[in-house]
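Predict the 3D structure for this chain.
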Amino acid sequence: MDELVNALKVALADTFTFYLKAHGFHWNIEGPEFPQYHAFFETIYTDTFEAADGLAERVRTLDSYAPGSLSRFKELTTIKEEVNILSAHNMVVKLASDNQKVIVSLAKARELAEKNKKFGIVNFLEDRLDKHEKHGWMLRATAKVK
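Done. Predicted structure below.
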């Protein structure tokens, strides 16, 4: 069960770091397509912020404490923070890559939840995977250059 708890903590850290990056991009987007990107990033960060709470609650249902500090998230996440202001296209490319990292951490946690017969957690993680697969499609489609 410890392996599942740890995987959920990584998935939480990845989700929160992805949320924070999308929110930062939302704040700092510029250019002729500002309204579209601004709204697009808001959709992503709103969804992932809400998901972070669900992941933390799943950690708590396993009688463990959820990480709740930026320093702890930084230790656990597989996503690198972005300190530079990027072009709109590069923001989308970064989010597409980071979204894939979130998918990997969610999938690992899902596999361990199934192994431990925690089917409620499996269902939650499958829903999250579905959402991130959709985010991935939209990000890849937006990043495509003709």
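The chain is about 80% helix and 0% strand.
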